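> example.struct
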C-alpha cells in the first residue's frame, strides 16, 4: 500500500458520529457557564438555581463517561432525546422562562437531533419540543405571576429552528462529503486492485494463469463470494470453466466440466444469466462478458447478493473484464504466432534437409543408373552389377538421411576424423568428384560443438561441395574449420570459375532453390553469419561464423 494512503487511512473520518458526539459533549459543558454565572449574580432563589445546576451536571457526566454506548443507543433509539427534552424544559421553566440562562443548554438536544438525524430530524425534533417549551412558560407564569415577554419567546423559538436547522443542514453536507469520501476511497481501492491485477496479468505465462489471476482478483480483492470464468472457442462454445470461492485457495481454482453454447447477442445482452445461474447453483449472479471489439473471448460470472452490485464495483468488474479480454487476446495472438513460426521453421528445416540429403543422393543415383544403362550393350554384367550395388547403397543412405530429417536425429557424436571422412566419401561417391583435390584443415575444440552446430556445419559444407562440383568446375577445394572462444568458423575455398554473388542470390530468390540462400538462412537461424566472396574467373570463398554451442529451441537441423 502507498504510505500516503496508509497514513490517510489512519486519520479519523471528520464525519464519524463519535467525533460529533464528543463535540456535543463539549458544547453541553460549555453551555453550563451562563447558569453558573447567573447563580453568583442572582439575588434570590440561589438554592433552586444551584440545585438545577447539579441536576444538569448529572446527565453531562453520564454522557461523558458512557459516550460510546449512548452514541449507539441514540442512533438506533431516537426517542431517547425526549428524556433530554424534559430535562432542559424543566431547567427553562424553573430558571426564568423565556429569559432563562439555560437557553444555550436547551439547544443541546436540538443540535444533537440535527447532527444525528439531519435537517428533517432537526425540524421534527424542534417542533416536538415547542409544546414542552410552551408548557414551561405557562408554569413559569404560575410560579412567578409575571407576564410573558412574547418578543423574547419569538426570538427564542426562532433561535431553536435556526440553530437546529443550521446544524441539520451541516449534517446533510457532512453526510454527502462522507459519502463522497467513501466513494473516493472505494475508487482508490479499486484502482489499486486494477493496478495489481494488470501487473499480475503481465506476469501470467498462459491463458490458464490469466484465468486464475482474474478469479483471485474478483474473490479476494473485490470481495465477491464466488466467481467462475469460461473461455469461448471458435464455434462460440463456452468451455474450460474455472471456479473459485472467497474461502478457497485462489491459487488452485477448481475446474467445472460444463459446456455452454452462447451467441454474441447473448454475450452482449446477458440473456444467459438465468441459465448459467441455475447450472452453477447461484441464487443471484452477474454475467460480465469478456469482449475484444465484437469478438467474444470469454465470460466472467460472479455471485451477488439480492440487491445486486453497486455502481462502483460494477465499473471495477467491467474494467477488469476489459483488461482480461485484452490480455487473453494478446496471449492467444502470441500463441498463434508462435505456432505459425514453429510450423514455418519446421517446414524450412525439412526443406533444407531434403535439399541437403535427398536431392543430392537422388542426383547420384540418377547419374549412376544413367551410366549403367549406357553399359548394358558394351560392358560385362559384373560392371553393371557394381554400379547397381552402389546405387542401392546410395538409396539406402538417402533413406536413412530422410529418416534423420523427419525425426531430427543426430544419433552419433561426430569427431573431426568422421567429419572429414564422411565429406570425402560424399564428394567421391555421391558427387562423383574423383578429380577434385579436396583438403581439410580442422583446428580448435571441435568436440565443444553442439549437435545442431556440428550438423549445420556438416550440411553447409555438403552444399558448398555440391556447388563446387556442379557449377564451379574447380580442380582444388579446401575446407577449414576453426572452433575457438565459443565460435565456429567454416571457410570453403575453390579455384573455380567464380560468379557474381548478388546476381546468384537474386536468381535464387523467388525460386524453389535452397543453395546459397539456404546456407545463409541456416547460419542466421543459428545466430551467425554467412559471407560469400567471389568474382568471375577468380574462384569462390564462403565464410560462415556461428556459435559453437547454440542454446536455442528448435530442431537440430
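> example.seq
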Amino acid at each position: 500500500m502507498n504510505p500516503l494512503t496508509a497514513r490517510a487511512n489512519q486519520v479519523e473520518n471528520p464525519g464519524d458520529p463519535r467525533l460529533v458526539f464528543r463535540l456535543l459533549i463539549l458544547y453541553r459543558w460549555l453551555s453550563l457557564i451562563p447558569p453558573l454565572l447567573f447563580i453568583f449574580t442572582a439575588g434570590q432563589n440561589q438554592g433552586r438555581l444551584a440545585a438545577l445546576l447539579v441536576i444538569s451536571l448529572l446527565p453531562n457526566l453520564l454522557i461523558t463517561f458512557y459516550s460510546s454506548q449512548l452514541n449507539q443507543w441514540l442512533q438506533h433509539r431516537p426517542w431517547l432525546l425526549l428524556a433530554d427534552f424534559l430535562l432542559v424544559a424543566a431547567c427553562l421553566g424553573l430558571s426564568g422562562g423565556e429569559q432563562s440562562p439555560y437557553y444555550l443548554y436547551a439547544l443541546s438536544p436540538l443540535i444533537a437531533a440535527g447532527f444525528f438525524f439531519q435537517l428533517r430530524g432537526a425540524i421534527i425534533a424542534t417542533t416536538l419540543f415547542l409544546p414542552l417549551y410552551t408548557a414551561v412558560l405557562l408554569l413559569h407564569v404560575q410560579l412567578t405571576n409575571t407576564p410573558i415577554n412574547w418578543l423574547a419567546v419569538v426570538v427564542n423559538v426562532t433561535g431553536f429552528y435556526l440553530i437546529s436547522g443550521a446544524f441539520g443542514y451541516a449534517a446533510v453536507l457532512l453526510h454527502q462529503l462522507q459519502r463522497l469520501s467513501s466513494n473516493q476511497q472505494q475508487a482508490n481501492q479499486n484502482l489499486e486492485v486494477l493496478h495489481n491485477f494488470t501487473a499480475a496479468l503481465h506476469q501470467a505465462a498462459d491463458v490458464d494463469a490469466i484465468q486464475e489471476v482474474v478469479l483471485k482478483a474478483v474473490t479476494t480483492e473485490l470481495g465477491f463470494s464466488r466467481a467462475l470464468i469460461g473461455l469461448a472457442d471458435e464455434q462460440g462454445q463456452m468451455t474450460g470453466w474455472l471456479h473459485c470461492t472467497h474461502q478457497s485457495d485462489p491459487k488452485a481454482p477448481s475446474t467445472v466440466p460444463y459446456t455452454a453454447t452462447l451467441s454474441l447477442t447473448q454475450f452482449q445482452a446477458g440473456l444467459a444469466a438465468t441459465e448459467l445461474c441455475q447450472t452453477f447453483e447461484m441464487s443471484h449472479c452477474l454475467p460480465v462478458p469478456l469482449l475484444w471489439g465484437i469478438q467474444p473471448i470469454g465470460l466472467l460470472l460472479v455471485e451477488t447478493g439480492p440487491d445486486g452490485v453497486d455502481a462502483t464495483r460494477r465499473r471495477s468488474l467491467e474494467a477488469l473484464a476489459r483488461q482480461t479480454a485484452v490480455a487473453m487476446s494478446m496471449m492467444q495472438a502470441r500463441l498463434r504466432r508462435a505456432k505459425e513460426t514453429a510450423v514455418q521453421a519446421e517446414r524450412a528445416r525439412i526443406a533444407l534437409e531434403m535439399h541437403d540429403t535427398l536431392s543430392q543422393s537422388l542426383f547420384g543415383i540418377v547419374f549412376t543408373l544413367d551410366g549403367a544403362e549406357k553399359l548394358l550393350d558394351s560392358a560385362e554384367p559384373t560392371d553393371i552389377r557394381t554400379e547397381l550395388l552402389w546405387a542401392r547403397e546410395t538409396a539406402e543412405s538417402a533413406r536413412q538421411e530422410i529418416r534423420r530429417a523427419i525425426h531430427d536425429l543426430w544419433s552419433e557424436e561426430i569427431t573431426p576424423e568422421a567429419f572429414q571422412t564422411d565429406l570425402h566419401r560424399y564428394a567421391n561417391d555421391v558427387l562423383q568428384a574423383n578429380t577434385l583435390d579436396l583438403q581439410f584443415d580442422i583446428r580448435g575444440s571441435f568436440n565443444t560443438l553442439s549437435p545442431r552446430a556440428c550438423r549445420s556445419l556438416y550440411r553447409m559444407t555438403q552444399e558448398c561441395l555440391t556447388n563446387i562440383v556442379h557449377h564451379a568446375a574447380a580442380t582444388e577445394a579446401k575446407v577449414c574449420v576453426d572452433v575457438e572462444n565459443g565460435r565456429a568458423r567454416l571457410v570453403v575455398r575453390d579455384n573455380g570459375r567464380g560468379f557474381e554473388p548478388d546476381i546468384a542470390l537474386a536468381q535464387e530468390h523467388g525460386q524453389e532453390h535452397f543453395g546459397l540462400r539456404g546456407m545463409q538462412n541456416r547460419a542466421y537461424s543459428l545466430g551467425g553469419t554467412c559471407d560469400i566472396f567471389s568474382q568471375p574467373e577468380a574462384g569462390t570463398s564462403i565464410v560462415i561464423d556461428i556459435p559453437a554451442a547454440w542454446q536455442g529451441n528448435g530442431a537440430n537441423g
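> remarks
Residues 311-374 form the longest helix (64 residues).
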